[in-house]
Structure formats: C-alpha cells, structure tokens
Design goal:
The complex is a heterodimer. Chain A is α/β, with parallel strands linked by helices. Among the domains of chain A are: 125 residues, Response regulator (Rossmann fold); 162 residues, Response regulator (Rossmann fold, 3-Layer(aba) Sandwich), CATH 3.40.50.2300. Chain A contains 15 helices and 15 strands. In chain A, the strands form three sheets. Chain A has a seven-stranded mixed beta sheet. In chain A, α6 packs across α15 and α13 crosses α14. By secondary structure, chain B is an all-alpha fold. Chain B has one domain. Helices cover 78% and strands 1% of the residues of chain B. Chain B is built from 14 helices and two strands; from the N terminus they run ααααααββαααααααα. A two-stranded antiparallel sheet of chain B has the order 1-2. Chain B is globular and about 55 Å long. Classes of the chains: A alpha/beta, B mainly alpha.
C-alpha cells in the first residue's frame, strides 16, 4: 500500500474530524455546568443580579482553586421573570437540555416552590438561595430529598426581631404600635408572625393601626397620613427594596420619623443608597452588613464585591456565596455529584464562612441553614449606616422555632 | 352531509397518525427537552384553540379566557390535594367545574356587543384573579398552591414520570383538538361562523344569537379548563399567574401568530410562541423586546397568521 495521501483521504479525514469535533471538544472541556435561575428583569431584578454577581465571583474563585472534582465550573444563568410556570420549565430545561448537573435556585418564594416540585421529580441536587418562606423546608410534605435552603428563614428573623424589639419597646416604654407592610402573602403572613412572637415577649403590646400599601405603590401619602393621624408610639414595617426607600423618602417630607419610633428588618445596602436622608435611630436588622459580623473576612469579601461591581452586596449576594461554599465542601466530602450522595453529605454539614455569627454556618437535617448572622442595631446617616449591632441568640431562636413547628404540626 | 362525514373520517385518520408519530418518538430517541415542549404545547394548544372557537369562529374577542385556564388548574390541583378522588375523576370534575363557571360568566357577557364583551370578560378575569389572590386559606394567595400533586397514577401510568406525562398529555390534547374540530365543522360551528359574518341575517333566519354564543363560550371555557389541568400537571401545582390577564394575552398572541381562519393555526401559533420564548430566554434577558419585534413582524409583514398566510399564498400559486 502506498503511503500517498490522496485528496479523498484528506476530505474523508476532514469530514470525520468535523463531525467528531463537538464530541471531542466536549470531552476535552469536560466543564461542570451549574444552572442558576432567578428574576433578572423587571422591578425586582436586583434579586437576581446581586445573586448573579456573587456567583460569578465564586465561579472565578472555585475555578482558580481547581474546580469541582478536577472539572472547571460554568454557571448558566436564566431569567424566569419570577413566574412559577416559567421557573418550573427553566429548572427542567437547565437539567434536561443544558446539561447542568447542579442547581442554584435563586428565585423568590412562589417560583421556588415550583422549582421544588421539579427537583423532587429529577432527583438532582438543588440549593434554594433566596426564598425565606419557612414552609419550603420546615413542612415535611413540601421538603424535597435533594433540595436545600441556604438563606434566611422567616421564622428565624421573626423570633430574633421580636426579642430585640420587645426589649427595646420595654426600655423605651413603647406600647402603642402601628404596622405598615406590603399587601400580599409575605407581608401579611410575616407581620402576623412577628406580632405573635412580639406579644409573647411583651404582653401589653397594642397594635392601634395597620396600613397595607400595594407592592410597588409609587405614592405613600395616604399611608403616611393615616399613620401620623393614629399617633402610635412606634411603627413596625416590612416594606422592602424600592418600596422601603420610597416610603422613607416620602416619610421624611412629613417628618414621620420625628413623630414615632420606627423598626424594620429589611434594610439592605441598595435601600440605604436610595434613601436621600437616612433618619438616625431607626431600629433595623442587618440583612447584609460589612461590619457585622465584625471580622476581617467579612469586610474583605464586602470590599472585593464593591471593587468588582461598583455597588455594595445585598443579602442575596452572601446567601448565594454560601450556597457555593456548601456545594464545594459537600462535593469534596461525597466525591460525587449525584443528588442522593450530595444530600447525604449536606445534611448536618458545618462550614467555615464569613457570614456565620461565629464564623460557621450549619446545614441542619431539615435542609435549612442555621447560625448565620442576624443582628439588630440602629441607623445613622453615614457609614457604616447601622451601629450598636446586637447579635441574636441562636439558642432562643431554635427553641421558639421548634415550638412554632409543633404548632404548625410539622413535627 | 356525506362530504362532512368523509372529511370527519379523514380528520380522525390525520389525528391518529399525528398521535402515533408523537407517541413513537420517545422510543426512537429520548429527548427530555422535546418531551417537556410537547407537554407544554398540549396545554397551550388546547387553550389557544378553544379561544379561537370564540375569536375565529364566532367573532367574539375574549380578553379573559385565561380565567378558565386558571380555574381548571386550581380546581384540579385543589381536588387532588384535598380529596381522595382519582386523577381522571378529578380532571373531569375540574373540566366540569370550569364549564359551569364559563356558563355563568357567559350568561352575563354574551349579550354585549364586541367592545363591551371584550371589556367585561377582562373584568371577570380580574375578579377571578383577585379572588385567587385574596382567598389565601384556600388558594395560597400569591404564593400559589404548594406541596405538589399527590397520587398521580392513572390506569397503571405514573404521571410523575416524564414519559408517561408526555404520553398522557399528547393523547388528551389530540382528542381534545379532534373534539374541537368536530364542533367547529358541525352545523353548530357553521351557525357560529354565520353569526360572525352577519349576525342580523343569522337572527332573521331564526337562530337565537345569544344562545349559540353562550354555547360557544361555555364549550371554549371547558376546553380551556382542560388545558389548565395539563398545565397544573406540568408545574405540579397552580399559581395565580395562570389566571392572570397576560396569560389571556399569550393565547391571543398564539391565535394571531398562527392564523384565526385555520383550525390548526392556534396550535402552530402556540408552538411558535413557546419555541420563541425558550430560544430567546437562552440568549437574552430582553425577552419582551425580542418577542414584541417578532410579533410586529408578523402583524405588519404577513398581516395575518402563518397558516392563513400560507393558505392564501398557496391558493394564489395554484391559480
């Protein structure tokens, strides 16, 4: 046989290599894809973009350290617009056609419940990073074997907030309270939950008026005048994001903050940035604060985020970061990527992270995190914006959470 | 009549062949993405085609058709969660419930002329949507019905399995579309088209206009409810967005994209809309912008739906 390479051979070889190219490329790249879905457009796109920013930083960090199981990772981002039906479709699509082997569900509550059902049927590992609705993991009927939550949980915040506010109200002799929360399930349920615990710690508490503005309401005049006319000693509000900054800005015009004490658990850096004159002395929880926990690691992460994105991180940013840290540890421990193995590794896992109140966060057996930083302090108009932060007592939080779970017949 | 019967047999044969192809595909090549697409298309096709019974056949533009889709989904999901009924019984009862709801809403709406009819259907949809949002103890409010659907087996099929759900949805959709086709081709369907073309003349012929319209509205509502049942199966729950007005808008888009004068137009429109949505969602976050441009191209460029456009082009060529 002659060793002459004919034109035909070249053509055949060329065609064969062209056909094989994608498979070869895939085998060489061998990238591990992680699906992330969230609200990336519309009025609360901040939920998704600040989550995505944090995940992009984590991707760089993890890849620089060698990836997961020796494979570089690539996070695939999808916008669900917060619609549950679309969220369910995207979760399936990420796994079934985009080849994602792990999921980060950065959806708000209702869509995360839709994703939960998809995860249940696909058996893939999923971490919910933004849904704070307690029942997602607390209710054994809703909890899914391979789905976990790395985020604040409504009931934890309610217990911690109520204990702090009860002490504050007793010290300042504030008995007559008003509430002002968004008029939908989150606002109504969570206000009721806060009040339930609040009354438990301060039985002489009296709620003299309630205001329920609509989500995204541009003009709060009627709400503000109603609150001022009722003459409460203090106001509790669950307004958040753009609604909260609009409320504070408009409340300033009516000198609302001089007429009553105000408490809110929902102050985040972007809200602070959008408020023109932040009144001093608002009792506020820390959703994310560079100075709480006051450790070099936390400050360093906050500064790195600010440097990269030219804006400050949100509560959602740290939650997504911690989710990747949990994946990292669990994959190392399980030495596998399948849902069951990772679920076994994640249950009960404790990791070192800057966002834990004692430098660690634990994934409890009921698939939700504990030990993350919850603190309450008071606002000042300039950096660091919230001072005198008191850390919540996790022993007390878990004790009351267990009581609440029994009431709900979850345990 | 004979011609009718013959075309009826032909359509049944076409439906059987289409169903056979769809059912055979997974045995040749399993593609979860394709199967998900068909499941969603089944639901959307029934929804859009039932709307076209009103828009294309009767000339009644309903902006509130999504309420029946949402009601079907909620009725079915609630029955699955709260009762011990088997899946087929719950599905049938959900369709029945939606049909009765459509009869009640229709009784008030159908006597109104076109613009007012469109407005009042939209108003009813907003009413139903508000009830779903406010009745938290039953519907879960804006969080939707959570906790999944239990007992999803039906005659040995486990609908929690994607393949079985795919097969079930394909069969239900083809049978549903065939039924709608028969209704549309029947003398009753002819009467509806007569009303659309000239209602005064139809009235003079002795047809009681409001009764025929009410029937059409009720039947369309029932089939939209069936679409809602499939949607609830796909998302394992029910969410207020299913009953919200943008969902009605989706059905209207599907009808306009596919063509109002062809029976399969809305099915094609639904397929285009879903495929576009999936493709665009992969590439950009500006989905609304891209979809809007595509719809503008269809509206200004083709000036009718795809199937209608092709039919007109075809008949011009053959002349």
């Amino acid at each position: 046989m002659s060793a002459v390479i004919t034109r035909r051979t070249v053509l055949a070889a060329g065609t064969a290599s062209l056909l094989a190219a994608p498979w070869v490329a895939r085998a060489q790249a061998n990238t591990l894809r992680i699906g992330m879905q969230s609200i990336l457009s519309g009025p609360i796109a901040l939920l998704g973009t600040s989550s995505r920013n944090a995940l992009m930083m984590e991707q760089d960090r993890i890849n620089a350290a060698g990836g997961f199981l020796g494979r570089q990772i690539e996070i695939v981002y999808r916008d669900s617009k917060g619609q549950p039906q679309e969220a369910a479709r995207i979760a399936r699509e990420l796994v079934n056609s985009s080849g994602c082997e792990l999921l980060i569900d950065a959806e708000a509550s209702s869509a995360s419940f839709a994703v939960q059902e998809v995860v249940r049927s696909l058996d893939v590992a999923c971490i919910h990073t933004n849904s704070e609705t307690s029942s997602l993991t607390a209710d054994p009927k809703i909890r899914a074997p391979t789905a976990f939550r790395v985020a604040r949980q409504g009931v934890h915040d309610a217990v911690a907030g109520s204990i702090y506010l009860a002490e504050y109200a007793s010290a300042k002799k504030l008995n007559k309270w008003a509430t002002c929360s968004p008029d939908y399930a989150y606002g109504r349920d969570t206000t009721a939950q806060y009040l339930q615990f609040f009354k438990q710690f301060k039985p002489d508490l009296e709620v003299i008026t309630e205001a329920w503005p609509k989500l995204g309401q541009p003009d709060f005049t009627e709400v503000i005048t109603k609150l001022i006319q009722a003459k409460p000693q203090a106001l509790f509000t669950l307004l958040y994001a753009g609604d909260l900054s609009a409320f504070v800005n408009q409340g300033n015009i009516y000198a609302l903050f001089a007429q009553m004490a105000v408490a809110t658990p929902n102050v985040d850096y972007p809200v602070l940035a959008a408020i023109k004159n932040l009144p001093a002395g608002i009792q506020s929880a820390t959703r994310y604060l560079e100075t709480f926990p006051d450790t070099p690691a936390n400050k360093e992460w906050g500064q790195a985020y600010f440097k990269k994105w030219n804006e400050r991180p949100t509560n959602w940013s740290w939650q997504n970061t911690v989710a990747m840290q949990f994946y990292e540890q669990a994959i190392k421990k399980a030495n596998a990527l399948d849902g069951k193995a990772l679920a076994a590794a994640l249950s009960g896992m404790r990791i070192y992270t800057p966002f834990g109140v004692d430098g660690t966060i634990t994934m409890r057996d009921d698939h939700t995190t504990i030990g993350y930083a919850i603190g309450w302090g008071q606002t000042i108009p300039k950096e660091p914006f919230i001072v005198d932060v008191k850390a919540a007592d996790w022993g007390k939080i878990i004790e009351l959470e267990t009581e609440w779970k029994k009431q709900q017949r979850y345990i | 009549m004979k011609g009718n019967r013959r075309s009826g047999t032909r359509e049944t044969a076409i439906a059987a062949v289409a169903l056979l192809i769809v059912l055979v595909v997974p045995f040749v090549h399993r593609s979860p993405a394709f199967e998900d697409f068909v499941i969603r298309l089944s639901s959307m096709a029934l929804f859009a085609t039932s709307l076209n019974l009103l828009v294309g056949n009767t000339g009644m533009v309903s902006f509130g058709h999504g309420m029946f889709y949402g009601l079907g989904a909620y009725a079915f999901a609630l029955m699955m969660q709260m009762t011990e009924l088997s899946l087929p019984v719950a599905a049938m009862l959900a369709v029945l419930f939606t049909t009765v709801a459509a009869l009640c809403v229709g009784a008030i709406c159908v006597r109104l002329s076109t613009d007012y009819f469109a407005f009042i259907t939209l108003a009813f949809q907003m009413l139903i949507y508000s009830v779903i949002i406010s009745w938290q103890s039953l519907t879960g409010g804006d969080q939707g019905l959570r906790g999944g659907l239990p007992r999803r087996e039906i005659f040995g099929f486990d609908l929690a399995s994607q393949l079985h759900l795919y097969q079930c949805c394909a069969v239900v959709a083809v049978l549903g579309l065939l039924a709608l086709r028969h209704i549309s081709a029947s003398p009753f369907g002819q009467t509806l088209r007569m009303i659309r073309d000239n209602e005064s003349r139809t009235g003079f012929l002795g047809v009681v206009l409001w009764r025929a319209r009410l029937w059409a509205f009720t039947i369309a509502g029932g089939f939209a409810g069936l679409g809602g049942v499939l949607a609830a199966l796909f998302v394992s729950g029910a969410y207020p967005e299913l009953a919200d007005w943008p969902n009605s808008g989706q059905a209207i888009f599907a009808v306009m994209l596919g063509g109002i004068n062809s029976f399969l137009g809305p099915v094609l429109g639904a397929a285009i809309l879903l495929a576009l949505n999936d493709a665009v969602a992969r590439v950009t976050e500006y989905q609304g912008l891209v979809l809007g441009i595509v719809i503008l191209i269809f509206a200004l460029g083709l000036r009718r739906g795809v199937l209608d456009f092709l039919r007109v082009a075809w008949s011009k060529d053959s002349q």
